[in-house]
Design goal:
The protein is mainly α. The chain is built from 9 helices and no strands. It has 2 domains: 127 residues; 87 residues, N-utilizing Substance Protein B Homolog, Chain A (Orthogonal Bundle). 72% of the residues lie in helices and 0% in strands.
Amino acid sequence: MAMQVRRIARELALLSLSQLPSKPDRLQAQTLQDIVTAAVRTLAAEVRDALETASGELQRSDSLLLDSETRASNPEAAAKMLRDAVQNTEAAINRLGLTLEIPEFLQMTNQSEVRNYALEIVGRYQQEKKEVNERLDKALVDWQLSRLAGIDRDILRIAAVEFIYLGVPDRVVVNEAVELAKRYSGEDGHRFINGVMRRFLEQASGKSLPPEEPAPESNPAINAPESNS
């Protein structure tokens, strides 16, 4: 299976995991259009959440700034709220950009293979959900899987499924999970995902992974090389 196919399928699986049906017969009946629709819905929900958060921060910042004009207040807090609002707006714009990229990427590869691998990832997770979640919980230090942001949970779940059940090599699993986190997680999410996945793989194999190689300056998930995959 082509590297590009797996990368696009993996990304669609991530974005549609929480939206697709869990029953095997209904899942296998899903078309590529169904998977893309689910992925777009996930991104749209994230856009709405980011814009709502940004709007709230702007309103609170405006109130603090108006208050500071009449009495000594906290302009530093207002400035921080304004910065947070800008960051959330930027996140929403980025999510919109990713949504627009999906049709272009699908035109570049074998669409039936993309569908099949995306459903294979989602289907195996639905079948092995209990074991996957328990093993990931063990890899978390002073934390719980249920307390993570939804996108981080699903990145870890997909990586675990690919390693345990689909035979993807450990280095590829870590690299691809990190690249997904760079695209979809928070500012430091990729570092957190990297640490958890390395502990997960070390626990699974009973041995330490080799030291990490320096990451390239720019390595978007869709276009990055996927060696050994």
